[in-house]
Specification:
By secondary structure, the protein is of the alpha+beta class. The chain has five domains: 88 residues, GIY-YIG endonuclease (3-Layer(aba) Sandwich), CATH 3.40.1440.10; 144 residues, no CATH class; 114 residues, Nucleotidyltransferase, domain 5 (2-Layer Sandwich), CATH 3.30.420; 161 residues, Nucleotidyltransferase, domain 5 (2-Layer Sandwich), CATH 3.30.420; 52 residues, Orthogonal Bundle (DNA polymerase, domain 1), CATH 1.10.150. It has 19 helices and 21 strands. The strands form four sheets. Strands 14, 15, 16, 17, 18, 19, 20 and 21 form an eight-stranded mixed beta sheet that branches. Strand 20 and strand 21 form a beta hairpin. The protein starts with a helix and ends in an 8-residue tail after the last helix. 32% of the residues are buried.
Length: 625
């Protein structure tokens, strides 16, 4: 039993991160503190100064732990990482996890390349971006190759000059073939410099040169070439349109505004690089209802830039943030140069921030109905199910199914739904090991036993590792188990849980004569469901998903050539005996119908092997030795 009074006395007056655990030992809140002693104690003193959200969180805390750091800055970094990893229920959460593309120019190479990149690395290359459209990045790279004949291969030059033949891009006029020594290093570098100027926004010289070449080709009646130049001009102008000039004095900045309604918020970012608006995007935050505007902005900045591949020189924010000094030190350290944060109050900068805020409001208004529908079909459906089964809370549901063909390569599936949505990272597959023949009940018993035994084992290991907040893939137990079947499957699940000393509600998904879900089997009675309700639709989706996942796994094994014959599952029947049986009988059904005396007459089959085959197909009438 966790002794709160005793543990509170042990808290050090040092900076660090604290983790609050719920009743199921899950992490429900992560926070940082300059003094762990002062900060954590506040949660367990008078609740008058706590918001309703924090009071509710405190009522669910079963224990807490903490990690000491050397500085508040280290605590900030650790807090960001832990929030991203565990996504605690009571933290304000950034729901999107997007990455943005960059254009990478390998200027550190003798013959540089222009590449698509998802991350900025400290490799001496030049990076342009981030861009919000991967398609636009690829179009720009292709355009630059056509304009300047830049190579895209991975050959190491000048070491590999003269080795092999020039590639197809050289033959179609999109590469100057430095791999063959057809262009000097100096001439190639000059083209790279033009490409860099183009990426920096200097498009006018390119348009002028292409226009001149188009006119010359037309005057020489080389109309096909003139059309190629015309198409290139159009491509350049498309790129120019996507990189509108914002201000020659704006340099690298992110402009951030937000709008919120209820528990949801939308944050809009304008990405300005080299004074040009190169893209914009929006993000969703949840759990903001009782947060102040500065707290919403602080949560976004910490979570977004913890995973951002690059940090701009300045953040222009709609609201000021908490912990500003330590966040500035953190951002400057990540960038490698000083970063500033401003909250503009007048002029063009204020208008830009206001524009970002208005865009966020437009997205929020547009998506509000969509969000309501999504909430109804997920968490709303879960709440319906809670009322139907009279359960206090269903956060996590697990559903199980078995797939086989005549007992052939039996597999089991486990799908997981959290808050009414599939959590595919938690799905698990099981290959049945200990069941002979076709017996779905025994297969299900094996799957459930392995799943929960493994979970208990992981939990024991967790308790032995004090101070380690990590949990294994099986250690999260469900609030409700859904079985693909009625009374029989439910009883199998209850048997396994009783044996392991676990108490988890089990519900069967009952089907009608047309194999459609008609209701639930719970606490020894069938619970009818309204077919038009969201809870009914949710249960149907869960059942279909468990079935799909099991069949998909079974199919993948067969397609990979891992499933050969049901005879492979019979002990004592190897490849030679299997071939002999198939040559004599022709198909599995005839082997199934054969008696033991007939089987003994097959070449390479002895009495013991014949008995094994017969008992495999007739487990309900095993003969005595």
């Amino acid at each position: 039993m966790f002794d709160f009074d005793e543990e509170l006395k042990k808290l050090p007056g040092k900076p660090g991160v604290y983790l609050m655990h719920g009743e199921k030992d899950e992490i429900i809140y992560v926070g940082k503190a300059i003094s762990l002693k002062n900060r954590v104690r506040q949660y367990f003193q008078s609740s008058r100064n706590l918001t309703p959200k924090i009071r509710q969180m405190v009522s669910h805390i079963s224990r807490f732990e903490y990690i000491i750091t050397d500085s508040e800055l280290e605590a900030l970094v650790l807090e960001c990482n832990l929030i991203k990893e565990y996504r605690p229920k009571y933290n304000t959460m950034l729901t999107d996890d997007k990455t943005y593309p960059y254009i990478k120019v390998t200027v550190q190479e003798d013959f540089p390349r222009i590449l698509f990149a998802r991350q900025m690395k400290k490799d001496k290359a030049r990076y342009f971006g981030p861009y919000t459209s991967a398609g636009a990045v690829k179009d720009t790279i292709e355009l630059l190759k056509k304009l300047y004949g830049i190579r895209g291969c991975s050959r190491v030059l000048p070491r590999d000059i003269g080795l092999g033949r020039p590639c197809l891009y050289h033959h179609i006029g999109q590469c100057d073939a430095p791999c063959q020594g057809l262009i000097s290093k100096e001439a190639y570098r000059e083209k790279i410099q033009k490409a860099l100027r183009f990426l920096g926004g200097d498009h006018a010289p390119v348009v002028d040169e292409l226009t001149r070449k188009m006119k010359d080709a037309s005057d020489a009646m080389e109309y096909e070439k003139a059309m190629e130049y015309r198409d290139l001009i159009y491509s350049v102008r498309q790129i120019m349109e996507k990189q509108k000039v914002t201000s020659s004095h704006m340099e690298d900045r992110d402009v951030i505004g937000f709008a919120r309604a209820g528990n949801e918020a939308v944050v809009q970012i304008f990405f300005i690089r080299g004074g040009r608006l190169i893209g914009r995007d929006h993000y969703y935050l949840t759990g903001v209802e009782e947060e102040s505007r500065s707290q919403v902005m602080t949560s976004f900045v910490k979570q977004f830039y913890a995973g951002a591949p690059s940090i701009p020189r300045e953040l222009m924010l709609q609201e000021d943030i908490d912990d500003k000094e330590v966040i500035l030190r953190w951002l400057s350290e990540r960038r490698g140069q000083k970063v500033t944060i401003t909250v503009p109050k007048k002029g063009q900068k204020e208008r830009l921030v206001e524009l970002a805020s208005k865009n966020a409001m437009m997205v929020l208004d547009k998506d509000s109905e969509k969000l309501k529908r999504e909430e109804a079909r997920t968490q709303g459906a879960v709440r319906e199910l809670e009322r139907l089964l009279d359960l206090p809370s269903i956060l996590r549901m697990e559903a199980f199914d078995i797939s086989n063909i005549n007992g052939f390569e039996k597999v089991g599936s486990m799908v997981v739904y959290e808050k009414g949505k599939p959590k595919r990272s938690a799905y698990r597959k099981f290959r049945i090991k200990d069941v002979e023949g076709q017996d779905d009940y025994q297969c299900m018993e094996e799957v459930l036993t392995r799943r929960f035994s493994h979970g208990l084992k992981e939990r024991r290991k967790m308790r032995e590792k004090e101070g380690d907040p990590r949990m294994g893939s099986f250690s999260d137990f469900p609030d409700l188990i859904l079985m693909d079947g009625g009374k029989g499957q439910v009883n199998i699940a209850k048997k396994v849980l009783d044996t392991l000393g676990l108490s988890i509600p089990v519900c069967g998904m009952v089907k009608d004569d047309h194999h459609r879900t008609r209701g639930l089997y719970y606490e020894d009675v069938e619970v009818p469901m309204d077919r038009t309700s969201e809870s009914f639709r949710l249960v149907t989706r869960v059942q279909d998903e468990a079935h799909r996942f099991a069949i998909e796994y079974h199919r993948s094994l067969r397609s990979a050539g891992q499933v050969h014959s049901i005879l492979d599952d019979i002990k004592g029947i190897g490849p030679a005996r299997r071939r002999a049986l198939m040559r004599h009988y022709g198909d599995i059904q005839k082997i199934r119908n054969a008696d033991e005396d007939e089987l003994k007459k097959i070449p390479s089959m002895n009495e013991q092997a014949a008995r094994a085959v017969y008992r495999f197909f007739h487990p309900e009438n095993p003969e005595e030795d």
